[in-house]
Amino acid sequence: MDTLKHYQFTIYAIIVGLIVGSCQPAESPKLTDGDKKYMEMMTTDAYESWNVGDREPYLARYSDDVVYMFPNGETLEGKDNVREYVMSYPKGLTVKFPAVEFIGNGDVVNLRGVYTIHNSEGTLINKGKYLNVWQRNASGKWEVTHDIFNSDLPLPEPDTTKIEEEM
Questions:
Q1: Model pLDDT for residues 77-117, shown as the tens digit of each residue
Q2: Which strand (E) or helix (H) includes residue 66?
Q3: CA distance to 19, 98, 114, per residue, from 103 (Å)
């Protein structure tokens, strides 16, 4: 009888061990240097192409349901809405938005960067920072799902002459 109890206990211990072991969360995949290089290359290609008049590489980074949060404007949702905004942006500006830092794992990454915008004469007209959330889609391709950027420069003083004239 003791042998039977010993076997039952052993089987019970094995089953409990398997159950407890299978309940542990899976370890997230690691962010690789190759992942970082891919995001950095896509980002660099986006601004270099923008500067020669091609905005498609900028848009190609985005998921179809991207959330795009730009300064002093309503949040845009969806690549088609972002495309409309981006295509209406003034021509002749030179932009640069290099990556500064990558934080995340092999499935989700926050890419922090800085940006500058110069007019056609080379004068700096804006500078700031941005944060992109990159996620792997179902096919394993990295895409930007969220993009937010804002200026380091103060807003210009409002023109109060009309208000003063009306008083």
A1: 999 999 999 999 999 999 999 999 999 999 999 999 999 99
A2: strand 62-69
A3: 33, 15, 15
**Whole-angstrom distance, CA of residue 51 vs CA of residue 67:** 23
- Fold classification of 33-151 is Nuclear Transport Factor 2; Chain: A, (3.10.450)
Give the separation between CA 51 and CA 88, rounded to whole angstroms.
Answer: 15
Q: What is the pTM of this model?
A: 0.78
Element (H, E) at 11: helix 2-22
Can you give the residue ranges of every domain in the chain? 33-151
- Contacts with 84 (C-beta within 8 Å, 6 or more apart), sequence order: none
Q: Which two tokens stand for residue 122?
A: 């080379």
Q: Residue 113's beta-bridge partner residues? A: 99, 130
Total length of the chain: 167
Distance CA 80, CA 82 (A): 5
pLDDT tens string for the chain (167 positions)?
566 666 666 666 566 555 655 566 667 789 999 999 999 999 999 999 999 999 999 999 999 999 999 998 999 999 999 999 999 999 999 999 999 999 999 999 999 999 999 999 999 999 999 999 999 999 999 999 999 999 999 988 888 776 666 66
- Alpha helices (runs of H) in 51-143, residue ranges in sequence order: 56-60, 79-88
